[in-house]
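Saturday, quiet lab. Running sequence design on the structure tokens for the scaffold JK sent over.
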């Protein structure tokens, strides 16, 4: 074994240890909202939502997943810093900027942090985009010659939830909002926006309302009941699999 072997081992160990600490700090960010649904979990299995909102123990993330999540966090942080750097310029044009902004929807018990929001008060228009990183296969499915026509439902519901929250805050009607996903390709750093139809605003309301009704009796939803799971593939990636739930 050479010196490089030890260097690699040390780098991996300390970086993963750092990421675990970062994960703990992220949890602290939402501690005051224990018992609330997270906007980022929009579209998820109702049983998973029950475990989330009741703070059940989760399976730990593996090292590779931690690093993948961190990459997304770094991209988000850079974009947020870029907007903050030019906030004065943006707002000099009569626009109000919202970056990493907390939105709260008390009526459906949801809280989240939107990536980028802009409010044109003069025109009465609201723009919200959510940044997502994607590998080449996902990118090709969306923007290739024969794009996948199936929507990324969870992402659409998530950004729609942020949009509803910001509209409520600035007191604008939902029909005055434009929502989108902004994709960052991890392979070559390409960036491309994907506009989302406003029908997803009402779909998000429907999802959260149905979820609140389903969990109103404070019982774990039965497998096979409404949205439990929403997709069979969810179980494979669920942090509660084999810990509290055997899956579908």
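Result came back. Writing it out in full:
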């Amino acid at each position: 074994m050479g010196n490089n072997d030890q260097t690699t081992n040390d780098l991996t160990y300390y970086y993963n240890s750092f990421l675990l600490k970062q994960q703990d700090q992220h949890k602290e960010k939402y501690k005051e909202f224990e018992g609330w649904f997270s906007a980022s979990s929009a579209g998820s299995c109702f049983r998973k939502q029950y475990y989330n909102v009741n703070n059940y123990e989760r399976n730990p993330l593996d090292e590779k997943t931690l690093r993948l999540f961190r990459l997304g966090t770094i991209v988000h942080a850079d974009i947020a810093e870029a907007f903050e750097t030019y906030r004065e310029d943006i707002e000099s044009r009569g626009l109000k900027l919202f970056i990493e902004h907390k939105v709260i929807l008390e009526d459906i018990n949801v809280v989240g942090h939107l990536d980028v929001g802009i409010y044109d008060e003069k025109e009465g228009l609201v723009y919200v985009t959510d940044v997502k990183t994607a590998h080449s296969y996902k990118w090709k499915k969306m923007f290739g010659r024969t794009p996948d026509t199936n929507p990324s439902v969870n992402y659409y519901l998530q950004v729609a939830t942020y949009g509803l929250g910001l509209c409520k805050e600035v007191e604008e009607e939902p029909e005055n909002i434009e929502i989108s996903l902004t994709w960052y390709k991890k392979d070559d750093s390409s960036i491309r926006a994907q506009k989302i139809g406003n029908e997803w605003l009402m779909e998000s309301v429907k999802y959260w309302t149905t979820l609140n009704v389903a969990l109103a009796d404070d019982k774990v939803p039965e497998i096979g009941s409404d949205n439990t799971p929403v997709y069979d593939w969810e179980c494979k990636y669920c942090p509660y699999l084999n810990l509290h739930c055997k899956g579908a």
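Notes for JK: Helices lie at 3-29, 46-53, 63-85, 87-91, 136-143, 153-170, 199-214, 234-237. The radius of gyration is 20 Å. Ask whether to fix the surface positions before the next round.
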